[in-house]
Design brief:
Elements (H helix, E strand, L loop, with lengths): L13 E2 L6 H12 L1 H8 L3 H6 L1 H15 L4 E2 L2 H6 L10 H16 L5 H4 L1 H6 L16
Parallel strand pairs: 1-2
């Protein structure tokens, strides 16, 4: 067997290194491994996916990670839809925030409730800060 082929579909595939885009690959791998997110993306109507290059490339990338035979999947087509510069390192958290905002807007157009609400369902939360006295317990 070729060194570029996965031994089985149970063996996870990786993503090719495009240069200074390891932050993109890390986020993509985390999103792919989130079964609920992947299920929501795959529930999106074909027409909606085909009309939005970011959705199309993300769905294609996830399909290749899931069912492809290669050890590494090329993430360059997805990165190019976002016009990312391979030579410039960016902040991973900032990229995730921007990507989720874009995906929330695009997937929000879906007729499928699973796809339409997946970003909110998985990634939204509430943050609160409480200052409490360690002596009396008063907030």
């Amino acid at each position: 067997p070729s060194e570029t082929c996965r031994p089985s579909l149970d063996s996870p595939a990786g993503l090719t290194n495009l240069g200074a885009t390891c932050y993109v690959n890390s986020i993509l791998q985390c999103l792919y491994m989130n079964h609920g997110f992947r299920k929501g993306l795959f529930a999106t109507e074909k027409e909606l996916v085909q009309n939005h290059p970011v959705l199309f490339q993300l769905a294609l990338l996830f399909a290749q990670l899931h069912s492809g035979k290669k050890m590494a999947v090329d993430s360059a087509p997805f990165a190019s839809t976002l016009e990312l510069d391979n030579a410039v390192q960016q902040d991973g958290q900032e990229f995730l925030k921007l990507l989720l905002t874009l995906l929330e807007r695009l997937l929000g157009q879906s007729e499928s409730p699973l796809a339409r609400n997946v970003v909110q369902y998985i990634f939204r939360g509430t943050l609160s800060h409480v200052i409490r006295c360690s002596k009396c317990g008063q907030e």
